[in-house]
Amino acid sequence: MVVAVTGTLLVLHEDASVHADILIDRPPANVWKVVSTSAAYPDWNPFITRVDGDFRTGETIRIVLGVGPDSMVFKPTVLVVHPDHDLCWRGSVWIRGIFDGTHCIHLTAVTGGTRLEQTESFSGLLVGRLTKDVVEETERNFEAMDTALKQRVEKNSP
């Protein structure tokens, strides 16, 4: 039985990724100020509704996605903090290697503002054709987060 389940997981396994981007009419430093202030996420973010801890390389933070009984809690490790440019963390569902996600926010200075690119790379035994709904929902949530971030930055900075 274990061999059959493992074989099925390996056959269905296929890493997945999500990508969303948006142009924000402010410089990267203004966008970074909002993105890197973990305590303020509940004030503006409809997707990542709470972050406990600071964005420091090597730190384990606590992230809450959503609200109410359907919310999910992750405890990822911060991988990259490059002010005004990059913020990345990696977390797992259950144990590492089963269902992992690496989330990155990348800021690029462009004429008239900042291009924000948000990505999530999923890997692990449970990632594959069975996770299509998760990928699609994550993409919708990224778009909502990007829009809310754009509104927050453009409203609160000159």
TrEMBL record:
InterPro entries recorded: Polyketide_cyclase/dehydratase, START-like_dom_sf
One Pfam family of this chain: Polyketide_cyc2
Superkingdom, taxonomy of origin: Bacteria
Coiled-coil segments: none
Protein name: SRPBCC domain-containing protein
UniProt source species: Paraburkholderia fungorum
Upper classification of the organism: Bacteria, Pseudomonadati, Pseudomonadota, Betaproteobacteria, Burkholderiales
